[in-house]
Specification:
The chain is α/β, with parallel strands linked by helices. The protein has 3 domains: 11-33 and 47-291, 3-Layer(aba) Sandwich (Rossmann fold); 306-377, no CATH class; 381-442, no CATH class. It contains 17 helices and 11 strands. The strands form 2 sheets. The protein has a 6-stranded parallel sheet, with helices on both faces. Strands 5-1-8-7-10 form a 5-stranded mixed sheet, sandwiched between helices. Helix 5 (113-125) links the parallel strand 3 (106-109) and strand 4. Helix 2 (46-62) crosses helix 8, helix 4 (90-101) packs across helix 5 and helix 14 (388-397) packs across helix 15. The longest helix is centred in the middle third of the chain and has 21 residues, at 233-253. The radius of gyration is 25 Å and the shape is elongated. The termini are far apart. Bound molecules: iron/sulfur cluster (2 copies). One iron/sulfur cluster (SF4) binds next to helix 11 and helix 12.
Length: 443
Amino acid sequence: MINGEMSKDLPIWIMEPELTEKRDLAARKLLEGGQKKAHIPQTPSLDDIKQQLKGIREDALSQIDHLTRELKANLNQKYPGVKVTQARDEAEAVGYITRISDGTRTISINNSSVVSQELKPGLLASGFNVINSYLDEFEVKERKILDYWDLPRLEEKNLSGTFNVSIKMAGIDQSHPTDGKPRKYLAVLGANAISAEDTTAFFLEHFSNIHKDLKEAEKVVIVIGLDKIVKHRQDAAFQTKCMGIFGMESILLGIQPEPKRGIAIAGLSLPPADKERELHLVILDNGRSKLLEGKFRELFLCIGCRACNKHCPIRHSFTNVDYVWTPRNYLNQFLYGGEKSIDICLHCEACRLECPLQIDLPGLMWKAKIDYISKHGRSFHHVILGMPELLAKLGTAFAPLANRMMDIGLVRAPMEIITGVDRKTRLPVFHFNTFRRWFKQHA
Ligand code: SF4
Ligand code: SF4
């Protein structure tokens, strides 16, 4: 374990399965149905874990200003070699990265939401070539798990408690590392937690992308969302571990066939041998402190584990979005203008039940929708679809004609434009002789 010694290099911990069997192998074994039983140490019950996690998150939420100040002061005092900056929003963070890039155009990012969702659009708009090194490591050729019900119960496979610290890195290596040379690119990596007290940064890694980027990038920028700062190192470690415990199934569900390859890091040029590698740390607010003031305060508790994705019935409708889709990220995108609506949510509550912090995402989606409507009014689609009785009355009054019209493709297209109902939808058949009419005649 770590002792409390002072070091000029920022302590960085990467968490991954501690067993020889790595998680990608485990994933492939599960996909192939030939899994091996792994030895798992006894873990406390999930309810105990959830309770402890909630305590850590609520503590962080209640003292975030203090924790941010403490983190900055400790970084400046203990690690003057680390360049620390605070960014109010994504534009400031992207501006900072652009300034320090010094003409380097290639950026490798990890799959964290703070980077892949919040910073990536700005980085692309600023002309960087952005590589997602996490996706580049997938070697699964065929998507075999299509739905939750195809997924083997991980606890039965002894895979739920496998996360533990297996690598400790103390800062980024200045010397030429043995397993790869520094290359001329920037790694922008969203951390999963950081301790304000001793400044240890934690990452959860399923493959080896983060480890490689920390070893090989000429400049490393660690991005810390305000919500990732907790007081103690053991709390930061616990929070990161929870992401693995609760998010494992979502990771397997999210496995895609081999994605399109980007620029290969190994092909990038080498920086001058005498040039020191740089470590930067960006503390990013980007609306988080505003969240704390309002009705979406609960979102600050989120650890980004993606468990809310597991049973969501609408997740398959979002295969083409350019961010990691989860109910939580969907709401975030809507709140910050990346999604135009959140109407697709069925408010089925599955995400709330799966969330280890029981964040009421369906309730928050309602609130977001109400806010939007009170600001922008109801769309014509909503007004029309909000009058099902009137629509049904009109349909039955003109039943034979209405039914025939609905079979004509030329009518369906304007219907889609006016009502928002997809032209491929089969609407129920209207009957002129309604039950009431029939009852009156036969009573
Ligand atoms: S409430 Fe909405 S976002 Fe949550 S699981 Fe159901 S459909 Fe998905
Ligand atoms: S909202 Fe989703 S990502 Fe956030 S903690 Fe809950 S399950 Fe995890």
